[in-house]
Amino acid sequence: MKNQKLLFLSETAILTALALLLDMLSSFFIKMPQGGSLSLGMIPIFIMSFRWGLKGGLLTGLLTGILQPILAPAFIVHPAQAILDYPLPFMLAGMSGLFAGWVHSALKQNKWRTLTAVMAATLLGSILRLASHVLSGIVFFGSYAPKGTPVFTYSLVYNSTWMIPTWIVAALAIWLVIMNSPGLIKSNAKKP
């Protein structure tokens, strides 16, 4: 049992570090004025979700979200906004672990079922992450909305401009990787 926990914690630490590194590197591609960028750091969170399920995804996402504003410049205007834009949305991305069983079973069938399962699982995590960012935008960045534009619409469109590409790139990258190396999401360990 100790070995299982040690393996789980080691993989969490490694994939959290990889998520942070990928997130820092990907911020060079698209950087929005009030924050947000193409986030390749979602890939390790999703992989941990598929490898260890919900617990692995939530913990990896939470740690990534806590460490990201510490290690890289962050756009923070209020403590509640910091929570809504960092730990909470990355942790919510780990909810893709709810579909880990589906991804594993699809992987045994064919590549198109696997693509469907990966797209759906990562879509769940991405929508939940987007919801947290949209709420932050409504509460803390509504003043940036152009006159006459509803704050909800502004926040949804603003955050979707980088979250939709993030979802698509992450899902396709994971699918391509696991089709060529399915062992990446399979863990021989029993879930902690």
From TrEMBL:
Membrane-spanning intervals of the chain: 12-30, 36-54, 61-80, 86-103, 115-142, 162-185
Keywords assigned by UniProt, alphabetized: Membrane, Transmembrane, Transmembrane helix
Domain of life: Bacteria
Protein name from the UniProt record: Energy-coupled thiamine transporter ThiT
Gene name, Swiss-Prot/TrEMBL: thiT
